[in-house]
Structure formats: structure tokens, C-alpha cells
Amino acid sequence: MALKALDIYKLLPKKNCKECGDPTCLTFAMKLAGGKADLDLCPYLSDEAKSVLGATTRPPIRLVKIGVGTKNFKVGEETVLYRHEKTFYHPPGLVFRVTDTMPAEEIVAITRRVRDEVLTRVGADLRFNGIAIENVSGSAETFARAVETVEKVEAHLPPVLISKDTAALKAALVHCGTYRPLLHAATQDNVQEMCALARQHGCPLVVRSGSLDDLVNLVKTCTADGVTDLVLDLAPENFGEFIRRSTAVRQLAITRAVPDLGYPVYLNAAETGQEDAAVALGIVKYGSVIVTDPLPSGSAKAALTLRQNIYTDPQKPIQMNPGIYRVGSPDKDSPVLMTVNFSLTFFTLQGYLESARVPCFMLIVDTEGLSVLTAVAAGKLSEMLVRDSIKTFGLENEVSHRKLIIPGYASPLSGRIEDATGWKVLVGPRDAAEIGEYLHQEWKK
Amino acid sequence: MRTVTFLPSYYKIDVPRGTTVLDATQRAGLSMNVVCGGQGKCGKCIVFIRSGRAEFDRQKYGRFFTEPELQKGGCLACETIVQGDLHVFVPESTLIQEQKILVEGLDHEIEFHPSVRKYYVELHPPSLADPSPDLSRFLWGIQKSGGPVAEKMYAPLAVLREMPSILRHSEWKVTATIGLVPGGYRVIDLQENDTSKRVYGAAVDLGSTTIVVYLWDLVTGKVVGVASNYNKQISCGEDILARVNFARKNGLTKLQALAAESINQAITSASNSAGIDREDIYDVVVAGNTVMTHMLLGIDPAYMIAEPYVPVVRRALSIAASRLGIACNPNGGVYAFPAVSDFIGGDIIADILACGMGEREEISLLVDIGTNFEVVLGNKEWMFSCAGAAGPALEGGEVLFGMRANPGAIEKITIDPVTLDPKYSTINGIKPRGICGSGLIDLLAELLLVCVIDRTGRINTGIEHPRIRKGTHFPEFVVAWAKETDTGKDIVITENDIKNLIMSKASVHAACVTLMKEAGVTHKDISTIYFAGAFGNYLDKKNATIIGLIPEIDLKDIKNIGNGAVTGANIALINRRARKTLDDIAYRIAYIELNAESSFMDEYTGSTFLPHTDFSLFPGVQELLDSCRIRKE
Amino acid sequence: MPFEMNFGWTTPIGEVVLGATKADGGTRRISYRIGGGTTLPFLESSPSSPAPLIAFEICDNPDFWSPIVKDYCGDVVNNANEWAKKADADYGADLVRLHLTSTKQRNFSDIASLGSVVEGVLSATSLPVIIEGSNEPKIDSEVYQKCGEAGQGERLLLGTAEAGKYRSIAAAALAYNHSIIAQSPIDINLAKQLNILLKEIGVQRDHIVIDPYTGALGYGFEYSYSAMERIRFSALKGDTDLAMPMICSSADTLTIKEVREAGDGLQDETAIQWELFTCLAAATAGAEILCVRHPGTIVPLRKALAGMKQPAQSAGVP
């Protein structure tokens, strides 16, 4: 449980000494509560306060780094069960699987695809994160060769090495041992050797069991052996079991009920028989490393998009870049609709405008992602902002009229916007769904 | 030049052809109700041209008038151009009315210990045997007559220059005015003979709309005069933002002068009615919001209205009155309240001082509502504050028949649950002209109780009743029929008005809850809610709770402190220790930026319901609504 | 499981019955009881509540329908009865959701015809049916009256009540004993407010299905996802005004650029995958009726849902 500012304040010395850089202990407490300040800044903390406050700042799920260089990815350090409680921090690595029985060309092609494929959405480049090489041949040599083939592409992708055979892993590590590959997997049968390998190469290690009890024991063994960068494979028999175990692990970890489950979760979608669905479930239900056979275009994009959605900070709504957006091919007489840069507001309005088939301009002003309603209430949407936006984005050059349609919820500002901008303000509907009708009836007048 | 004669007062003024009638009224000294600042937008400056030639576009502004009004020569003063000599009738409703003055005091006594005192001393003239300098002789004399210790006092150069002649001319019988200033005491003034019974102070609430002045006799500790008038800055913009913009365009000097002038006017009228000389006023305490205070001090307020919202100064300031153009003794001082942030200003610090929440263990919630609202939560140990835009709905703006708390405003309403007929009372008991904030809150609560509106404020047009109509743009409820009203028009409240009111109340409530969450307290932990602000005194506490403007607590624990700003200023004027605590209070308050609080949006939508989406926060209201709904079925 | 997850839930999700069989005075061959969940979706180790239902959406005027779906389904889109039949027999839906898109035409006034459209679809399929009425306040009242009447006894699910228009649909539902979809714009508070409004005019909890509105995947879906999670969470924590089953439609997902412009030969696959991802995520967040428009989504979706409902330790992947 995160502590409230006041709870923290009660533990502070209340000297208002300003040595932390804040004017009062209360404002310092507010920063601590929001995770915006470091406890060490206070020189007068009692030991009791330190232990209480310190415990709440240590992440309940370990951060595990996979791969090296610019393409490494980090998973874990999550703090909540629901994204709305705070946010999900580290998006799962989506890793394409190759097998060592594939022809080299195919391995190369898949590796290149992971290296090159990019989906650009809402200003972000979305990519797959790594390449998993599975030892299905049973031969250490073949496995090592497949790994070598991947490495020769020089894609520098974080590798996942999947084999039950430690000898095979050992052979493969010759080719990628310094790249922090994720090793899969330590089980009851091989945990000692796996730990030795992981320790030797400084690799993160997957521990696998269908029983949470066994997982806890495996984790204890590994950590006792000095291997602490662990990932949990819950070995689910079906989707239901995955959801149940993954939820259990997350809940028991973040409540610190079972600290030994405080590690990221691994899911091999390729072994579920329905990869696309498995990837979707892995993304929403706490998967952190998701291995899958290369996805076809449709599901590949859907997966990257779903991951982007789920891992968006719900408290920081995706913001559109402020500016002028066109719907259809508007001309000098086309209507101008002003709204905020909260992405959902933008997309909703844009969607209805497109279906209304009225070419128009959208003037998007920067309310830092607040919706119209909240931006008005909190004073973020103001006539000055509208005036400055019209100037900055050169709206005057786009249209020959001087009429601005504002959202219904901004109607309290209509007079002030007119005064500040000199534009005639028309108050549009509150609900974007009515914009088509509104434009057909009002704009034509 | 053309002569414009105003009826019914017969004020005459000569103006050049081409002047607007609004300009002419202002030059004639008539204060008009100009909400839009003379842009032809608000339709409030209605006048009637009785004779003469003037230019006015009836086509364009016809929507503000009824047909008979147009026939009688109805015009908007701001859009009417003087062409020839004119006779213009100005209806009373167009003029700014005298506002109700809040004289609510406190329920406890304040120790009388002003910062300024006069001491009459009779000194021994110097001699060869006693050659000490004039100043030390004088300061010793004061100390001996019960004044501060001599070493802690200092005399400014202006006083020193006058000192030798005044001492000798008065034959060493003088009255000194000593004021407490940071770091010591200052000799403010030196007068011949005994004037020690004549020392006054003024406590000023510098509001963006209204200035209120309390004039105190600092010897007897009695209020000798009270006056209020409109803030003359209104001519530069109705709201604060407009004025800051005006200041940006080289208008700061004018705004500073207007602020001083407005205060002076109130001080003058209070002095006149008390029969005292303004020269005897030595101490002026001003509580105003941060922007108003900056403007009075002539400090550029522009930087605090845009990110990162930084005021120039937060701490309290003492300034010589003459430097601000305040009409009191030129050596007198002006004390300006400190502030917390751009939005939590001296007026709120004054509220806190008035209600005493900063001195108690128990947690209190202070809510000050105007166009903007400010909320403070806390006790003697900690305080959180925030501010936001309530929108003008709660003050009667953005509501079709909304108006300020002026004569003719419906201020109280009940609705009969069976007949749906309202019973109302108006300010001054005259025929209704509109509805003010307290009336609107009553109306909202009553409409909910009698099931005319649902919990989102939508009017149930399925009810067949002459008072419930489809309306031109929105469904509406008729509060007063044309035949009952002063304007001859039906006074209605529309669904859109109700929506605006709900949005306003939701902002206030969401702000309260945001602070409560930040502090980790619930409504059960709040011992007292204090209402401050213009309509605080007239607000029906029960109805305010029913609509969910404030958290539900026991009604007896909700207190109206009325104009807390002036009460706080009064306290700071008459009690120097209280004044000393102000910087500390301001310093202790943490400000929470609602924009940065992600939960605010959630709290806000939760609050856009009557009383709230979460009924558990309003158990009493819920019970009441259930029972009245059962009665209805 | 050795470790118990303790969430402290107090209240099960309320149940809503869709469709009436002969025994209940209707003509449906099956009726569904949805809701009843006692924890987060799919967490019961021996699942007691049924898997989410899959509704196939059709309309009586395909002018505004996704061209991808129209191309895939062919001529049948022009005949609501045939389309409904196909949804039932060929596509394998659990429910048919009929959108009366004809009411979207300008100055639509032939309200009498809607009754026969509804009757036609009800006779073309014996699955329970969801009817989406008009979007035009002026004709709402008559349209819902007509739909309600035409489906009398069939326990329809009528859509869509919103905060701004709920009285006429509620009147029709109350008069003919149908249930209502209560839609609010992706906000837990607004969802609750609407449920309270409905309750206060007499609509029982067991006649309400919440539609928190599903934004398109990539265009606001995350808000819908969290709104659904929060609604389910609050319901289980005891907020009875939110303890109703939820419905999700992936309809918006077909209108977005990524799907519309998927490229030749990829459109169906893309549409199916995006609907599948949307519906699966919505199901984990609590949706119990999943509406799709592409027939190809139904099979993979059903397969995945079955997997999600499987109990522990059944035969499965090693």
C-alpha cells in the first residue's frame, strides 16, 4: 500500500529545516508520496521512519534485464494488479521463436523480420523485442549452430535460449554468452546446473513449474545459489490456468505475501495451440516475456497495439500533438472544430467527423491530455490557450471565415474565447456523436 | 459637442459626436452593469432613447429586447453612438446596485491590540544641563509614557526633518504615532499637541468585484464606519483574466490607480459617515486575492496566470500608503496579506484567520466560492489547499436568468411537491428580476426533491405541468410567471442552466474530495465546514448538502463565515499578534495543483450527479431522497 | 492451489436472463443466464459461471456497415432475415444483435416497418436477440415501443439507453419485460449514474446489461479495458449499482485505419485478429457478451474462451 502524504508527514521530523530542498516537511511528504523525491534527502529521519518508509519503496517484483546494448529490454518492477491503480511499467518482451531444425535461411529471415519490422502508432515505434531459439533437434551442436546463425545476422536482439539440456545451452552460450540471453528453463531436475550456467554467464534464468509451491522452492534454490535475475514459467496446461496462476503470482508478489514469487512471468504462446489468443492473454494478464512463433501480419499488429494500449499510463492519457488536423480535404470555407489533445477525445471526434463526411479542420489545443470537461473545470482550457493556438498554428491562413466551433462542455468559455480571439464562437454539441447532425444543420446556415 | 441628458436623474454631460452612450454614462458618473465590458454581448446595458439622434443596430442586437422594449427605443448603451443631443432613460435594473454588506462578526472575542498607537508626550525642553538631542529626548519620552523601548524605535528622515520645528512650536507637547513594523517600531507621524484620541485604521477586503472597508477607532476598538463599493477595475475587464490581459497591454498603472481609487472611495464614504478625517487613518490592512494584491501594489501579475503560475511575492508586505495612493495619512502604512500561490491569496489566508481553523486540533474544511473557488483542509499542524474554476454559474453567470445578489434577485425558493408551485423571496422584497447563487442552489435541490429533474439534472418533460416546457433550446422550468416579475418576462431555469450548475458544484466537491484523499481523511473526520465568500451567508446549508456541493456532515457543523476576507482583515487590523502569524499560516499551507492530480477527473465525474455517484458519501441526503420519492410514487 | 488469493470480494455479479424459451412464454430454443461471477473473470478454479457469449451483429440497412464484412458475407447483408439465419446456423453465434440502421437515414419515418423487421429476424433465428433501436431522440419513443412490442415475450436485450435518453427505452422494456443495454462513455461513474437513473424509474437490476463503451483497439481501447476492470472490481466489492454483466462490441475496431487499409488479401485476417484481440482482452476485464461483426472471428474466439474456462489439471499442453 502506498502511503498518503499525511502518513509520511507524521513520520518526518517536522522541523521545516528546508535541507531537503522543500520549503516544509509537508511538501516534502507530498513529493515522497508521489515518488518524486528521495528519502535520503532528509538528514533527520529516525531509524523507525526509515524502515517504514524504506519498505514501501522497494519494488515487490524484481526488475530483470534481458539482452544487452540498445535493444535490451527490462521487465518486472510492477506494483499493481490493475493498470488503473497506477500503471503497468514494463511492457512484455514479445519474442519470436525459431527452432534449431529450421533451415538457416528461415532462421535468418525471422531474425531479420524481428530486427526490421516496426509499427509506428501515435508517435511511437512499436517492435518485437527478441528472438528465442529452441532446441528441438536434441543435438547440442545443431542448437549451437542455430544460435550462431541468429547471431551472424548481427541484429543484436536479446536472445532466449530454450533447451532442457544444459550441455546444449553451454554450447549455445559460446555464441551469445555475453549478450545476457534468457535461459529456459531450470526445473527440479536441472536447477543446479542451470544456476551454474546462469552464474557463469551472468544470464537471467527462467524457472519452470506448474505448481507455485515448486516455483517457490526453485526460486529459493536459485537465489541461495546467487542467481537472482529470475523469470517464472508457470507451465500452464490451458488458458484458464495461465490466467489463474499469473494473477496469483502477481497478487501474492505485490502484496508481499510471498516475496519469492516477486519475479516477472514467462509465457510460451507457441506451446498453447492458439498463439494469437495466447499472446493477447499474455499481454493483459501479466506476462512479461512472451515467446511466440512469428505472427502473421494481422495478429502481429494487433499484438503490438494491444501491448501499447495496456501499457499506456492511465494517469497520463496519450496526448495528441497540438495543431491543425484535416478531415477530408477542407477548403477556405470549411468549418473549424476546436477540441483538446486528449487522444480519446480526438479520435472519437475524428471518427464522427469522418463518418459525417463534412471536410473540416480540427484545432487541437494543448490541455496536457485532459478531456474537455476536466480541462474546463481545472482551468487548463482557457481563452488564452485557444487564442495562442490559433496564432501558433496559423489557423487564420487556413480559412477565410472567422468562426470556431467549440465543444459543448466548453460553453462556459464561449464569450471569453470570442473576446480573446475575435472569432465568432459556435457552441457545438456535448456528445461527439451529434457532431454530424450539428454540422449538417448549423454550419449550412 | 452634444449634450446627453440622463433620465430620470437629469444628469447632463457634453460629449463629442460619435461617443458611445456607455462612455457618456461613465463620464456622467453613472455605474452601469456591463458584464461583457461593452462588447455588445451581454445585453445588460439596456437604455431607452427618449429623444434625439443616435445610431444603433436593432437588427443585430434585437435578440436582447422584447418587442415593446424595442418600440420604446430600447438600445444597448455600449453599441449606441451619440449623433445629436439626446435624452436617455436609464432603467434602475441597468445600474449597478448597492450590494448587501456582510457584517457577520465572529463568535469569539479578539484581543484588541492594534499595530498602531498614538502617544501624547510632554517633554522637558533641552538645556545646557540636559543637552541630549531632540530624537533621543523624544523617544525616551515615548518610552516613559508606556510606549516601546527607545532603542527599538526609529524615525524616518521625513519625521526627523519636521521634528525640531514641531517640538519647539508646540512647546514640547506632541503626539507621536508609532507603528509596529518588521524589526521594530517606526515613528509614523509627529503632531503638535494632544491628538492621541484620533487614530483610526481601515480593514479592506479587496475583491475583484466589491471592495468592503471597515473603519475602526483604534483607541476604543469600535467599528465607526462601514462602506462598500464596486471595484472600479471592472471597467477594464469583468474577470481577473481580462484584467491581467489589460495589465499586459500597458494597463498596469491604470489598474493600480483604480484599485487604490476604489479603496479610497470606500474609505472616504466610511470616514464621512463616521465624521472623521482621513488623515487620522494610519493603518490600512488589505486582504485580497493574489492577483488583486499584486495589482494594488503595482506588481506585474502576468506571470502567475500562465504556467508555471508563479507569483512575484508571497509574503506579507508593509508599504507606505502614499506610495500606493491610498487616501489616509500619507505616512500611514498599508499591510497586504500574504499568499500561498497564484490562486490561494490573502483573502483565503484571511478566511483561515477568521474561522480559526489553523489553531485547532480538529480537521476543518474551508470552502470559498466565487467565480473561482478555493478549498483548504487541515488543522493547526497541516493544511492542504487547492483552487479551481467553478465557472460563474454559482454566482448567477452562465445561467439564463442568473444574476448577482442584487435587489430583485430570488434568493430563497421552495417548491410544493404536489402543485410544483415555487415559493420564493427576493432581495429587498421587490418583484423578481432573476435568480442569484443561493436561489439557484435552493432551486436545484428543490427540483430534485420534487422529482422534476433526475440526478443528472435532466428535466422530466414527461410530467404534464404548465411550468415544465420544451423551451426554445432546452427544456425549462418556470420559476416565476411574467406577471409576477419585474422584467415582464417569465423567469425560467433551463436544463442547460442546471447542467452548468452541476458542473460548477462538481468542481467544488471534487476539489474537496481531492484534498481529503491527499490527506487520507473522510467526511467523517471533518469537524467543521466553513463557507466563505460572497454568497456564503445566504446559502442554505441543507440544500448545499442535498445537491452535493460540499461533503455531507452534520448540518450544525457547517458554518457560514460570510465575508471571511474582511473579518480576517479586521482581526489583523486590531490584533498585532494575529497579524504576525499570517506569514506562518501561509507558509504552512501546501498547495495542490488540481491539473496535476490524475484523480481529479474521476472525482469530478463522480460529482456530476445529485448529490454524488457514491451515495455512501451522502447517507442523509440519500435517505431524504428515498423518502420523498416514496411520497411521490 | 496452495496459495490463496484473497481479494475480499463481497458481492457476486447480478444475473440477467436473455431470451425466453417456450417454457418461459417465448419461442427461443435456448435462453442464457449471464452474470453470477464471484471473482475476477476466469479466476474460479472450477468455473461456475458460463463462458462469455458471442453475439454476431447484423443490420437492416448495410449502408454504414464495414465494407470488409459486406465483402466477406456477400449479398446476405441485404436481407436481415437471411443474415440472422446464417449467423445462427453457419457462423455459430450465441446471439444475434440486430442494429436498426435504417433509422439512421435522414428523415426516417417508416416506424411501422421496424416491427416487421424485428419479427422477421425473430422468426429467422431461434437464438436470443439483441435489438439496437434508433439514435434519434425524436423517434426513439416510437421505435422502442415498436421493437418492444414486436419482441413481446421473447426477453430481448434492447439497446441502447444513455444518460441523455433512457426514459423511452426503459418504458418499452418495462412494458414488455425486456432487458436494457445501458451505455455510458467509458467512465465508471457515468456507468453507475445511468444504472441509478434506470433503477429510479423502475428498471430492475436483473434487466440491465452495462455497456461501458468499447473504444477501438489502438484508439482508446485501454480506457474501456480499465473502465470494465474498475466496474467489475467495484461490483465485487459490493457496489450493487455496478453489479451487472457487461457487453462489449468490437465494432469500432473495424473502422480504424490499420484494419481498413490492411492491404489486399490481408483485410479479413486483420479484421478477425483485431476483433479477436479486442474481445479477449475485454473478456478478461469482465465483458460477458462479446459482439463481433466479422463471421471469421467467432471460431477462434470461441476456442480461446473455452480454453480460458478450462479447470485446473485437465489434459493440456505439457
Question: How is the secondary structure organized here?
Answer:
The complex is a heterotrimer of chains A (445), B (633) and C (318).
Chain A: H1 5-11, H2 25-33, H3 47-55, E1 64-66, E2 73-75, E3 93-99, H4 104-116, E4 119-121, E5 124-126, E6 130-134, H5 140-152, E7 159-162, H6 166-176, E8 182-186, H7 191-201, E9 205-208, H8 212-224, E10 230-233, H9 239-254, E11 265-268, H10 275-284, E12 287-292, H11 297-310, E13 323-327, E14 336-340, H12 343-356, E15 360-365, H13 372-377, H14 383-392, H15 395-398, E16 403-406, H16 414-421, E17 424-427, H17 435-443
Chain B: E1 2-7, E2 11-15, H1 21-27, E3 46-55, H2 58-61, H3 67-71, E4 74-76, E5 81-89, E6 116-122, H4 134-144, E7 153-154, H5 157-169, E8 173-181, E9 184-192, E10 200-206, E11 210-217, E12 222-230, H6 240-274, E13 281-288, H7 290-297, E14 317-320, H8 321-324, E15 333-336, H9 346-355, E16 363-369, E17 372-378, E18 383-389, E19 409-415, E20 422-426, E21 434-435, H10 437-449, E22 468-469, E23 476-480, E24 491-494, H11 495-519, E25 526-532, H12 541-546, E26 558-562, H13 564-574, H14 576-588, E27 589-591, H15 598-607, H16 619-632
Parallel strand pairs in B: 1-5, 7-9, 10-13, 13-15, 16-25, 18-27, 19-21, 25-26
Antiparallel strand pairs in B: 1-2, 3-4, 3-5, 6-8, 8-9, 10-11, 11-12, 14-15, 16-17, 17-18, 19-20, 22-23, 23-24
Helix pairs in contact in B: 6-7, 9-13, 9-14, 11-15, 13-14
Chain C: E1 16-18, E2 32-34, E3 53-59, H1 67-73, H2 80-91, E4 95-99, H3 111-124, E5 129-132, H4 137-150, E6 157-161, H5 167-176, E7 179-183, H6 188-200, E8 208-211, H7 221-236, E9 246-249, H8 257-260, H9 267-285, E10 287-292, H10 298-308
Parallel strand pairs in C: 3-4, 3-10, 4-5, 5-6, 6-7, 7-8, 9-10
Antiparallel strand pairs in C: 1-2
Helix pairs in contact in C: 2-3, 3-4, 4-5, 7-9, 9-10
